[in-house]
Design a protein that fits this description.
Layout: E1 2-3, E2 8-10, E3 15-23, E4 30-38, E5 43-46, E6 57-65, E7 68-76, E8 86-94, E9 103-108, E10 115-121, E11 129-138, E12 141-151, H1 154-162, E13 204-205, E14 212-214, H2 215-218, E15 224-233, H3 238-244, E16 255-264, E17 269-272, E18 280-281, E19 288-290, E20 303-308, E21 315-326, E22 334-341, E23 348-351, E24 361-370, E25 373-383, H4 391-399
Parallel strand pairs: 1-10, 13-23
Antiparallel strand pairs: 2-12, 3-7, 3-9, 4-5, 4-8, 6-7, 8-11, 9-10, 11-12, 14-25, 15-20, 15-22, 16-17, 16-21, 18-19, 19-20, 21-24, 22-23, 24-25
Length: 411
Amino acid sequence: MSMPKGANVPVPARPLRVEFARRTNPGAPRTEVHALLLADSRADVVTPGRAHPSRGVRHEGGRAVDGERVDGLLVDLTVVEPGVDRIVLVASADGGTFGQLAVRVRLTDPVAGGELASFECADATVESALVLGELYRRAGQWRFRAVGQGYDTGLDGLAADFGISANALVPPEPQAAPEPASAPPAALAQPLSPPAPPVRLAKVTLTKDAPSVSLTKQGGTSGAMRVNLNWQTRQQPKGWLRKAGLVGSHSTAIDLDLCALYELTDGTRGVVQALGNAFGALNRPPYIQLDGDDRTGAVDSGENLTINLDHQRAFRRILVFVTIYEGARSFAGLHATTTLTPRDGAPIEFFLDECTVPSTVCALALISNEGGELVVRREARYLVPRPGVSPQRTVDQAYGWGMNWTPGRKH
């Protein structure tokens, strides 16, 4: 079964073989594949020709098959330690990048025979280290996810994100003397004491044509997710800015407020915003917190929300939106970027289109629980409040939140 990037499938809890294949073209970089076994308190590394102490993962080395180099790993899910919840398959390229190679991953059943899943990583460019895919536990069942995301910083960048030394991914030199007959068939990989922090994969950009991404499929459904909004005013003649409502007779810095409407699975609804000092909370409902009130829009600061995805089962939907508090009468002429950075998985970004209406409130992103899958959808929707209607009430009415609103102010 051929899989697209990000897709996942259930796999049987029995011995499986993972094959990593790539063309051996003249001048192609030398490549190696490794397995990382991730638990709460450690990351174990299995390099070429080695095996894990549990015998759950064994690297079988590589061979040439019809002009391809094929590395195989035998993964026995019946003996993988209970504490290991992810087995990540990574590859490195020495002397080039994966943009020079056609990379394929196959998951087969060596007992029953046949292919369970396959994945072709066809969009690599400058990456010299790749996360190919991962086997992971979900609700007591093993699944395989096609990842295909990489690092242009090679093994150093990959190892840093997993909290291990890049040297741990380098196979040891072969010994000159033969091993005693009583020795095990493969040396043991040494467990590494630091916990495995999240993988930071290549950034995902949402567009009108590709407006959504699954946090669940990306593996980004735990820890803190940071939502950042930064903006700048495009350089335009002052007369144009005044006509667009960006400056008045007394020029004021533009102050945008990042906000979030939330609806929890127990029916609780509310808003997180600086107005009225409704900054929220991370470790109690609504599990969403506004970091502060920024008035610069600078790239290294801007407005920030944090969402505690450890409580993602409590969320039914979250609508992230932005209002103009002062300094402008419209978003016209503003260049804004929204970035969602989960602890695990890939950062997600999108850009606001040019505003052509007298809008003071913009719906940015809708995060919703869709059948147990957490999905981020780009909205980038400019709304125009009716006379006497606040921006907050306007976005509420547009998305059917049904809340009661009272006047508020920032302190």
